[in-house]
Structure formats: C-alpha cells, structure tokens
Design a protein that fits this description.
Radius of gyration: 25 Å
Structural class: alpha+beta
Low-confidence stretches: 1-26
Mean pLDDT: 93
Distance between the termini: 48 Å
Length: about 600
C-alpha cells in the first residue's frame, strides 16, 4: 500500500511538474505536436519491439551513443551521448566509445529520489538484454551477427536452465571505466557504428528500472531522451512530454552547401535549445478518411497523406492550390523502404525449396500486377521494386531491372501447368500437384486501404486460377502471428534502419528466423554470402557479394517485392522545421510550433 501511495504521489508530482516546466520553458502555453499513426504500437522496450511505430516513439525516449544528423543529405553519423566518434582498430574488431558525463535518466521511483547518471555500464547492460533468451528479442539475430566476444557463451549458459548472468563480465562488452565502453568483435565489422546509431534498439535502459517493474518494461520506459511517456492507451493514444532531466542539447546540423531548405533551417534554429516543443500527442487512426479530415480541420499538425487523397493533396506532385492558400507545407520523398509479400517458407503448401514450390511462388509473382497496384491503390505514390535493397541505402541502383517486377499472367499459368498445379476436381481452382486443395491464406487488416490492396491481389490470383482466402486481423496481432510462423502470406513494408543494406538481407538470414526473418527462409548459400558481405568494407568486392545474394533471393522468391513508396507529408503553417528523416526515426525535438500562425478560433 505504501509503495502504491508513493507511486501515485510521484505521478501527480510529475504531472504538475511537467505542466509547470512546459509553461516556464516558453513563458506561455505548452507547445504541442499532434499527429497520427496508421497502425498500433506494440510497446516501448528497446529489447522487445519489432515494429516501426513503437520504434519511432522509442527513438525519442531512449538514446544510443550516436545519431544521424537531422539536416545532412546524404546521411552523416554524429556523436549523441558519446563525446566523440569511436576509436576503431585497423581490423574493425575493437571499438572504444566514451560517453559524455552529466547525462541523466528521466526521474523514476526506481531511483529512490536520486538523479541517475548515464554511465558506460548502462550500455553494457542494455546490449546484454538483447542476448537474454528470456527477452526473445527480435533484434537478437542482428546483434548476434556483430560477433561480440563472449556474448553467445553467456546466452548459451542461460539456455541450459540457468538465469541469464548480467553480472558476468565478458571480453567483448566491457565498461573499462565509468564513461568508457569497449566492444571486441570476433570478426571485422566495418559498419558497426550504424548499430550504435540505432536509438530504438541501442537506447540505454537503467537496470534498476527493469528490475523494479518485472515484466513491465514494455509499458514503463525510462530513458535519457528528450521526451518521456506521460500516458498510453494501447492502440489508441500515446502522449509524451518534455523530459525535465534532458541535457543541454542545441540545434546544430550540417546540411549540404547546395541544400537551400536545410541551410535556411540551420540559420533559423542554430543554437536553440532542444527540444523546442513540450508535448507530443499521437493518435492511432487506422482508417484514412478520419486521419485526413482531422488534418484538414487543423486537429493534426502533420499528416502522411493517405493514398486515397494523394491526388487531391498534391496533383502531379505539386501542392493543391487550396492547400497552398492556407499556408500548408508539402514534403515529398522516395522513402528508404520496400513493400512486399512474404511467403512462410515452412508452410507445407507455399513454402519449401523444391522446384515445384519455387515455381508456385514465382508464378504468384508473375501474376501480380504491381503497375495496377501503383496506379489504382497507391495513386502513383510508388515505384516498382526490383529487389529488397531500399533507396538511399548502400548498393541501391535505380537502373537495376529484375524479373521481380515482371507482370505476365500467361507465363504464370504456363509455369503452374508445367509443375502440376492444375484444376483436378473441376471446381475452377487449381489444386496441389498431389491433388490436395490449394488455398492461399493471405493475412490482411480491416481498414479501407488494406481492402483495396486485397481486391487487387485477389483479382490477380483469380485470373490464374489460384484461390485466395483473406484473413483479417489488427496489425499488431498479425505481427505476433507472423513472428510465430502462423501466417502463410502477409503484405507489409520494411523501412531501412540504417544507410547500409545489411538489415535488408537480415530479414532473410536463416539464423534470424522467428525474429527479423518472418519468412523463415533458410538457405546455407545465402547465409554464407550474408556473413561475407558483413565483414567486407564497402567497395567492388562487397558489391559483387551483394549481387550474388540478391540473385539467390530472386531465384527462390521467399518474398515478392512490390514497391518503394513515395511519401507525401503535409504540415500545417505553424509546424516549423519538419523534415522526414531517411534514417533514425527522429524529428520531434527538432521541430517548433509557432502558434501565432494558427487561424483564430471561431
């Protein structure tokens, strides 16, 4: 009872303190950023999340040692909680990072009334959590491949019935003093810094907090970032407020010399203390129309224009005159992502590596009219994807063409006929080569835009005699089923988490099955190439390995890549300084709200 009363008192004090701090910060009403996610979050623990929406929130509460420059295009990695860029051995196996003194976690009862400083040991603990089998971290497969010396042995001991030993020191992950971390890797990792720039996975957590709230890490985030969680109604609303303990951080960036917009933003904001706003309110609105109408009614400050309204908002890629007259701002970019259908490679009907199974997936690919999807559903807000490599990431070639984007239903039918997928019982649908019914179970969501995708793909499959059954469910639930191997086919999109393509190939890397690899693709030849490309520095040899790996994926077709999306963002006149980050998911603390630009209330 005493603990409950103390916690309640802390919450009330925090709420009052937040309001007072926000008002005091500007001498006026708090500045609030309001917008919406199109799908629900899963939670807020860096070790456990695997979805974009949760990671966006995490990136503003937790901090990695490094970050991406907000205005630099192309990207630039800069120190965040680190004092400087890392010291790196010539063989890329030893990385030494010094953390800035004087960085503090947000207040929490777990700290027993004391200010809790961020130290090197917090990163040691946070990275170890990714290896703890009890966490079932979807990030484990990726961090495992960084080959931290001694980490796998620590995990293996915990799989034999022993508790995971967080106090056991390992050679590859040590705090060599209060503020210095040293990583020792078994193999060269020339791009290890990209790992350390991923706030949503490498964000430091405090051990006291994790242990004070057993099994509650997903709902009780405490980090050192610019914001902290104020309230959360699952899959409904997420509210963050300024973290009073956030260190002195001032607006600075390095836009290119010919980047007029970036240079203007730098000139306007340079030297301003961050964050410039006090509160962020994110509503989860899956249906497109209410999201769009809320923005038009000035209820949201920012919107990623729903596909159904892209021609209304920006016909021909230019801002509609009626919106321009209102002072609304337009931002368009080819996103660093890829949309795709994945096939569960362990499913007895559609998975497998034998010629007839490969033929089925390739026939489905040939029967998929991506151009129709782009023009009809995506309203020309995408380009066809030729491979899994995302725009803006290393290895992406805008001139590369593959059979992945081919649409040829006669070839699809011929391929199905050749391998015995014919209608044996006369019901109008193709059967398996052994005569069993062939039903493609396709997972989807119940929102209006998903239904449009469903209609187009069902039309494609009907045209070649493949029976498609659609199974609807909410996005977070579909993700859980996908990771558990319970879905046969699902369409989703992956945003690149770094400027490198290694994370793209990770989603098809055998040891990542059940984590990032929801297709459960396992091919020894591909895995060998994946490991090889990870060790090589960027250059011609690495590009050759990447090309070979890509050929295997296109041949076996564990995924059908559809598009790279063009994202059109609209911002209200009073939202100042917005730029969609290609990597890092951070922008909340880099924007400002100018309430003087709001229309008078009626």
């Amino acid at each position: 009872m005493k603990h409950w009363i103390a916690a309640l008192g802390w919450c009330l004090a925090l709420a009052v303190g937040n309001v007072q701090a926000q008002t005091a910060a500007h001498g006026s009403a708090p500045k609030v950023l309001k917008y919406a996610f199109v799908a629900g979050e899963t939670g807020f623990d860096p070790a456990q999340v695997n979805d974009l929406y949760s990671r966006i929130v995490l990136a503003h509460m937790f901090e990695a040692p490094y970050r991406y420059d907000y205005l630099a295009r192309p990207f630039k990695v800069k120190p965040n909680t680190a004092e400087s860029m890392p010291e790196v051995s010539d063989d890329f196996r030893t990385w030494t990072v010094r953390i800035k003194p004087g960085i503090y976690f947000a207040d929490d009862p777990a700290f027993k009334g004391k200010k809790r400083e961020l130290v090197a040991q917090d990163y040691v603990y946070s990275v170890k959590r990714l290896f703890d089998p009890a966490m079932k971290s979807p990030a484990y497969s990726g961090i495992k491949e960084q080959t931290i010396v001694g980490a796998d042995a620590l995990r293996e001991a915990a799989t034999k019935g022993q508790p995971f030993d967080y106090d056991r020191e390992i050679e590859g992950l040590r705090a060599i003093d209060r503020y210095t971390i040293q990583f020792k890797l078994e193999k060269p990792r020339p791009r290890f810094i990209y790992e350390m720039a991923n706030n949503s996975i490498w964000g430091a957590v405090a051990r006291e907090v994790i242990e004070a709230y057993p099994d509650k890490a997903m709902e009780h985030p405490v980090g050192t970032g610019p914001f902290r969680l104020a309230s959360w109604r699952r899959s409904s609303q997420i509210v963050l407020t300024r973290n009073p303990n956030f260190r002195e951080m001032f607006y600075d960036a390095e836009p290119a010399a010919d980047d007029a917009e970036g240079q203007a933003l730098l000139q306007r904001f340079k030297g301003r203390r961050l964050p410039m706003i006090d509160r962020v309110e994110v509503n989860i609105i899956e249906e497109s129309q209410p999201r769009w109408l809320a923005f038009l009614n000035s209820e949201f400050d920012l919107v990623a224009v729903p596909l159904e309204f892209s021609h209304v908002a920006a016909p021909g890629g230019k801002l509609a005159p009626n919106l321009e007259r209102r002072g609304i701002q337009l931002y368009r970019m080819l996103n660093a992502d890829r949309a795709l259908y994945y096939f569960n490679m362990e499913d007895p009907r559609i998975g497998g590596y034998t010629p007839e199974k490969v033929a089925l997936r390739r026939a489905i690919s040939l029967a998929t009219d991506v151009s129709l999807e782009i023009s009809l559903v995506r309203r020309d807000q995408a380009i066809p994807a030729q491979s899994i490599i995302a725009p803006h990431s290393y290895g992406y070639d805008p001139n590369f063409k593959s059979h992945n984007s081919d649409f040829d239903q006669p070839r699809a039918k011929a391929l199905l006929d050749m391998f015995g997928y014919i209608d044996r019982d006369g019901d109008g649908w193709r059967d398996m080569p052994d005569g069993q019914p062939l039903v493609i179970e396709y997972a989807s969501q119940p929102d209006s835009i998903s239904r449009q995708f469903d209609e187009v793909w069902k039309k494609n499959m009907d045209a070649v005699g493949l029976r498609l059954v659609i199974q609807h469910g909410q996005w977070p639930e579909q993700l859980k089923k996908a990771r558990a191997g319970q879905l046969m086919v699902w369409q989703l999109a992956y945003s690149a988490s770094s400027p490198d393509l290694q994370d793209a190939f990770e989603i098809l890397y055998g040891p990542a099955s059940g984590g990032q690899n929801i297709a459960r693709f396992k091919l020894a030849e591909f895995d060998q190439l994946y490991r090889r490309m990870q060790e090589l520095p960027d250059g011609d040899e690495r590009l050759r390995v990447i090309a070979e790996a890509n050929k295997l994926l296109l041949a076996y077709m564990p995924m059908k890549y559809t598009v790279h999306r063009i994202v059109t963002d609209l911002a209200q006149p009073w939202l100042i300084g917005y730029r969609r980050p290609p990597f890092g998911n951070q922008f909340w603390h880099w924007v400002d709200i100018d309430d003087s630009k709001r229309p008078p209330r009626r």
